[in-house]
Amino acid sequence: MRIDIITVLPELLDGPINHSILKRAQNKGLVEIHIHNLRDYTNNKHKRVDDYPFGGQAGMVMQIEPIDNCISKLKSERDYDEVIFMTPDGKRFDQKDANSLSLLKNIIILCGHYKGIDFRVREHMITKEISIGDYVLTGGELPAAIITDAIVRLIPGAIGDEQSALSDSFQDDLLDAPIYSRPANYKGWTVPEILLSGHEKKIRDWEHEQAVERTKKLRPDLLK
Ligand code: ADE
Hints:
The chain is an alpha/beta fold and 224 residues long. The protein has helices at 10-17, 20-27, 64-77, 95-102, 119-124, 141-152, 162-166, 200-218; strands at 2-7, 32-37, 50-51, 61-62, 82-92, 106-111, 128-131, 185-186, 189-190. It has a five-stranded parallel sheet, with helices on both faces. Helix 1 packs parallel to helix 6 (141-152). It binds adenine. Adenine binds at residues 86-88, 114, 131-133, 135-137, 140, 143.
């Protein structure tokens, strides 16, 4: 898979993209992640990417031209399955979206500024608009990092134990059961007896019951 992220703040993406599991997935050749600085696609001396809005409102607008230059260049090099714009008024991202995006070959993610992007970009170049939640951040960089993480960890081989991505909370619309490690008794706080029993079938049944109970209590909306 290949992910191209277009941003005016590449340094904001460096941490999340180039460490831990995302770094390892790139090193293993499971995913290529390319960060493009929008300023490199301007035609003006000062590398400006924004201008005043028509109509006299406050604030600046990200201009269409550098975005078009960047997306057109990428598209001339390969086909893309989706051109995604991160925006709080997009479709709310969930595990199902992560699953389906993880199956694609090439995607572009444009980090923008919600009120400040020439709307023609959204009308003519974007195929999918995604929000990470009903709150407004200063830009699309952190949201882009979040969906990239959610997508890449699903690529087979990205996390050590493939099974564990499939058994994540939300994959079956259930939250995870509680999990514990040694010591079995810490300051009198004990772990559930059943987990120490060595009885595989009973443990799996207990985990399922716990998952259903926790989902009922914390996220009843997930239960159909
Ligand atoms: N850009 C700013 N806020 C955002 C959000 N909640 N989701 C996606 N992109 C955004």
